[in-house]
Specification:
Number of domains: 2
Organism: Clostridium putrefaciens
InterPro entries: G_CP_dom, GTP-bd, GTP-bd_ortho_bundle_sf, GTP-bd_ribosome_bgen, GTPase_MTG1, P-loop_NTPase
Subcellular location: Cytoplasm
Function: Required for a late step of 50S ribosomal subunit assembly. Has GTPase activity.
Radius of gyration: 21 Å
Distance between the termini: 24 Å
CATH superfamily of the largest domain: P-loop containing nucleotide triphosphate hydrolases
Shape: elongated
Strand order of the largest sheet: 4-3-2-5-7-6
Largest sheet: 6 strands, mixed
Mean pLDDT: 86
Oligomer: single chain
CATH architecture of the largest domain: 3-Layer(aba) Sandwich
Number of helices: 11
Low-confidence stretches: 147-156
Strand content: 5-15%
Family: Belongs to the TRAFAC class YlqF/YawG GTPase family. MTG1 subfamily.
Length: 280
């Protein structure tokens, strides 16, 4: 499944991030807790250079708790702090300010020694499309400054947002790779909605998701759709789901497109259960 999707604004975003790094004290990178590796653009490490970074594992309510904590242990370092959050409910947001203070302690001490009492940090928010950046910024700002959409590519331009945590946020559009060489990465991004469904074959994508869940989370799949067995091909399983849900077209056949869209929506919404597609 070779996927090419690199809108022109992503080229500008990459250049914009590099140009604006000197304006910020740290970088807040947002990833999807279900696909911690796949939702990290490998260019971010290079682009952000040695800036202190907080990695927010967003949508942690949809991931398996133990797996998320394993990721935190694996990726944390002196310059990188990981936190699990839910941008929609605000869970975990309160931990961001202490994490910033810890990362920037030396800089804060120097500034205070020069007589500065009120310090406002500036942070650049980066992440791939549809990972929850706008929802996070809205929660931090406590109002809907950044537009929120359930499709990738909503945020187009840079903007500064003041928050109540003593930090100003610079929003940036989501940035993806020019091409996905790793099929698992491409599939993980497609499963979670970071690649536009309009450029995908949703029926093929749903079949691949079924294949994955049969291996990794069979009980979730069986319980959600009240399946007696997971034997057979992914197409046969999709047909069983269609019959259980009454997605039948004239002539008695299964409405594959309807079932594919439903399956992807229910996975993305956590209705199939808490599922982590990647482990450290």
């Amino acid at each position: 499944m070779a996927i090419n999707w690199f809108p022109g604004h992503m080229v500008r975003t990459r250049r914009q991030i590099k140009e604006n790094l000197k304006l910020v004290d740290l970088v807040i990178e947002i990833r999807d807790a279900r696909i911690v590796k796949s939702s990290s653009n490998p260019e971010v490490n290079e682009i952000c250079e040695n800036k202190p970074r907080i990695i927010l594992l967003n949508k942690s309510d949809l991931s398996e708790g133990k797996v998320t904590k394993d990721w935190i242990k694996t990726l944390s370092s002196d310059k990188i702090k990981l936190l699990e959050v839910n941008s929609l409910t605000g869970d975990g947001i309160k931990n961001i300010k202490p994490a910033i203070s810890e990362l920037l302690k030396e800089k804060e001490d120097r500034m205070k020694s020069k007589g500065l009492k009120s310090i406002v940090w500036r942070a650049m928010v980066v992440g791939i499309p549809n990972v929850g950046k706008s929802s996070f910024i809205n929660k931090m700002a406590k109002n809907n400054i950044a537009r929120v959409g359930d499709k990738p590519g909503v945020t187009k331009n840079k903007q500064w947002i003041k928050t109540s945590l003593g930090v100003e946020l610079m929003d940036t559009p989501g940035i993806l790779w020019p091409k996905f060489e790793d099929e698992d990465v491409a599939l993980n991004l497609a499963f979670t909605g970071s690649i536009k469904d309009e450029i995908m074959d949703v029926e093929e994508l749903a079949l691949r998701l079924i294949e994955r869940l049969v291996i990794t989370n069979p009980n979730n799949l069986k319980n959600r759709y009240k399946l007696d067995t997971l034997e057979g091909t992914s197409l046969e399983i999709m047909e069983s789901i269609g019959k259980k849900r009454g997605a039948i077209i004239a002539g008695g056949g299964v409405d594959y497109n309807r079932i594919a869209i439903m399956l992807l929506d229910e996975f993305r919404g956590g209705k199939i259960g808490k599922i982590s597609l990647e482990t450290p």
